[in-house]
Amino acid sequence: MYVIKGRVIDGNGGAPIEKGAVVVEGDRILEVCEEKALQVPPDAQILEVADGTVMPGLIDLHTHIGGVGKLFTMSPHEATARALPKLKEILYSGFTTIRECGGIGVHIRSCQEEGVFESPRINSAGMGVFQTGGHGDALNGMIMPTGIPKNLLTTWGLCADGEAEVRQQCRYTLSQGADFIKIATSSGVNSRCKTVNKVEFSDSEVKAAVEEAEHFGTYVSSHAVSNGGIKLAARNGVRTIEHATFLDEEAVELIEKAGAYIIPTFALAKVQYDMRDRLDPLVGKKIAVAYEAHCRTFELAFKANLKIGVGTDFFPGPDNALEMEFLAGLGMDPMAVIQAATKTGAEVLMRNDIGTLDKGKLADIILVSGNPLKNMGLLRRTENVKVVMQGGKIVKQL
Ligand SMILES: [Zn+2]
């Protein structure tokens, strides 16, 4: 039995318990209470640090385990070998679960579950489904090597045009173990398209993907940067809208009506924006337009109380909490940011056994030094994450 003491932020959005404790037995949370109400059995191991905060393990809803850019076209074997140390880093930085919006995760998920390597829990779309010439078509990638035959087995995506092909590729990727379907309803920053304002796929194609996903008991996630692409996704039943860059009031209303989630992924955009002068000139130009618009329009989302999740669009690594710091910096309430990275993350994953510190849930818990409600940026330094517990097992203890 473990007793983790500190300021308890349970992920449900209420005020923290300033002097609290979380009791863990086996793989589950047994109790969350005030420290003074606690009766500690003599054999319990106490975990405590100065000015410590106990929180649910963090959830990054938008990663690419197979890497970014050219890495998308390497073999799944090489991508896996490169990913393993990164998965350990992100786990040690406090992320106990990640969702992968396209990539190799479906193939290595079971090894994570068996404890073959140290990693967050993995939820993965496998290969995404994209239109020919669209954002995920390897032939269209600004940063991909050219000359790759259509539908070559990359770690990244499949092409489909028309309702029938969309259904076929969705069925294929789901049969390969995808936890959900990833599509793109707009162009993006890192593909060859000259604009970030293009719409991709049609209403009937998106509807077909949503129907196929629902038949498998799951949902569709769409890369949607352009305003038209966001609206296309929202009006056709897409459940998670990735990036949601060019928002306006009409788009916010549609998303709200659909009950969809947005995953803004500022982290990668910020990194690319800061190095825009060193990027391919077209990518640099597009990132400037997209990033500046996104920072301007995001307020519409949190003021309307849209359901917002935390996702970085990063390869997993030690700095994925950058997204949380960034959201707080844009004016989102710090407690809402923590909820986005915990409870909302679990909701998106359709898991009710993780995401909050409540009796009976799986013990995915972190103990950090300092108070993230006052300084979200402290989560970006892995040395501040003193304990990481995953399913009741301590995987990191400083
Ligand atoms: Zn992505």
Describe what is shown at a glance.
Pfam families: Amidohydro_1. The protein has helices at residues 76-92, 105-114, 162-175, 203-215, 227-235, 249-258, 266-274, 281-303, 322-329, 334-340, 343-348, and strands spanning 2-8, 17-25, 28-34, 45-47, 52-56, 58-63, 95-100, 121-124, 128-130, 157-159, 181-184, 220-224, 240-243, 261-263, 307-308, 365-369, 385-390, 393-397. With 398 residues, it is an alpha/beta fold.
Can you tell me about this structure?
This protein has 398 residues and is of the alpha/beta class. It has two domains: 2-56 and 357-397, Urease, subunit C, domain 1 (Roll); 58-348, TIM Barrel (Alpha-Beta Barrel). The protein contains eleven helices and 18 strands. It has helices spanning 76-92, 105-114, 162-175, 203-215, 227-235, 249-258, 266-274, 281-303, 322-329, 334-340, 343-348, and strands at residues 2-8, 17-25, 28-34, 45-47, 52-56, 58-63, 95-100, 121-124, 128-130, 157-159, 181-184, 220-224, 240-243, 261-263, 307-308, 365-369, 385-390, 393-397. The strands form four sheets. Strands 1, 2, 3, 4, 5, 16, 17 and 18 form an eight-stranded mixed β-sheet that branches. A five-stranded parallel β-sheet has the order 11-12-13-14-15. The model is unreliable at 142-153 (pLDDT under 50). It binds zinc ion (ZN).
The fold-level CATH name of the largest domain is TIM Barrel
The H/E string reads: EEEEEEHEHEEEHEHEHEHEHHEHHHEEE
> Spans of 5+ residues with little confidence (pLDDT < 50)?
142-153
Which small compounds were modeled alongside the protein? zinc ion
Q: Give me the number of helical elements.
A: 11
Instruction: Indicate the structural class.
Output: alpha/beta
Q: Tell me the strand percentage band.
A: 15-25%
CATH architecture of the largest domain: Alpha-Beta Barrel
Protein name: Amidohydrolase family protein
Domain Amidohydrolase-related: 53-395
GO molecular function, one term: hydrolase activity, acting on carbon-nitrogen (but not peptide) bonds
Pfam family, one: Amidohydro_1
